[in-house]
Specification:
alpha/beta; UDP N-Acetylglucosamine Acyltransferase, domain 1; 2 domains; twelve-stranded parallel sheet; seven-stranded parallel sheet; 5 helices; elongated
Length: about 325
């Protein structure tokens, strides 16, 4: 399945670029005759069909299953709400649940094949190059201690709440818990940590092995590994520059989830309609409804030659 996914996702990008290239090249060279226009339309329709094949609605969800190992005896497929969208160039594997209006951008990776399960709550986004992964939670059928977070009476390798933004190239590595309305900045990292509601982790900051209280922020580039330091993190006030940043980011990405899902459904509709190439244009100067003369068989040709020779001999007498 992995090879098929790579082939098809590659086809999506390649066929899209090829479509633009064909139109550009042929647009410069095509003669304005009915024959050339018909052929160009047929080419475009064929390429549209190929793109539709490579872009099903909801991307390539429900993703693909994990493999059975000694640390994961269960084989699971991701579960994805209908209003979520996973880009065809993203990867979602194993015991993962994506909530409503979740957007997973190109080259993001959510791997529920080692530590599991992974939960991504409603309205959250996992942006380009972001990674969600976790240490193994089972080994030879037994639970590995201290590898999960309990939320609402259930254990998770990684729990991402609602309206959480994981910015470009950020990393959340379980065991980890991130509560609602949290912003994790570009290239920031969360590992073996709990992040309270409304927290902002600025770009390139690292939070390891601590609990960050609600409504605090971690300054850019800072590394927090001591609980006393985590407790002293500055509070978010009305004057904080990034106080409402996550609201804007969530708005953009839930819009992406809806918009790209609609776009993909249009491609699916084109596929369902089975776009067929236009018929070949008629040969210049001839009508297509004229029957073609039947070719003569070899015996008929020999018979005619014999008749011609007899007539020629009679004329000499």
């Amino acid at each position: 399945m992995f090879v098929v996914k790579l082939a098809v996702t590659g086809a999506a990008s390649f066929m899209g670029a090829l479509l633009v290239g064909v139109v550009a090249m042929t647009g410069r060279q095509v003669r304005q005759s009915g024959e050339d226009v018909t052929r160009l339309e047929a080419t475009i329709d064929s390429l549209r069909l190929a793109v539709a094949h490579a872009m099903p609605a909801k991307g390539f969800t429900p993703g693909r299953p994990n493999v059975e190992t000694d640390f994961n005896e269960d084989v699971d497929l991701p579960t994805v709400e209908n209003s979520a969208f996973v880009d065809p160039l993203a990867s979602v594997v194993g015991a993962v649940h994506l909530g409503k209006q979740v957007y997973v951008a190109p080259f993001a990776s959510i791997r529920g094949d080692e530590g599991q399960p992974i939960q991504v709550g409603d309205g959250s986004n996992v942006q380009d190059g972001a990674v969600i992964h976790a240490l193994e939670t089972q080994l030879e059928g037994k639970t590995v201690p201290n590898r999960t977070m309990n939320v609402g009476g259930r254990e998770y390798a990684v729990y991402i709440g609602r309206r959480v933004s994981l910015e470009h190239q950020s990393l959340v590595h379980g065991p980890a818990r991130i509560d609602d309305n949290v912003f994790v900045g570009m290239q920031a990292m969360v590992f073996k940590a709990q992040i309270g509601e409304g927290v902002v982790i600025e770009p390139a900051a690292k939070v390891i092995g601590v609990t960050v209280p609600p409504h605090r922020y971690v300054p850019a580039g800072e590394t927090v590994t001591d609980q006393k330091a985590a407790d002293k993190l500055p509070q978010i006030t009305d004057g904080y520059a990034f106080r409402s940043l996550n609201d804007d980011v969530v708005h953009v990405n839930t819009s992406f989830a809806a918009g790209y899902a609609d776009q993909a459904k249009e491609a699916e509709a084109a596929l369902a309609a089975k776009i067929a190439p236009a018929p070949a244009p008629p040969t210049a100067g001839k009508k297509t409804d004229e029957p073609k003369p039947k070719s003569e068989t070899a015996p008929k040709r020999e018979e005619k030659k014999s008749e011609a020779k007899s007539k020629k001999a009679d004329s000499k007498k």
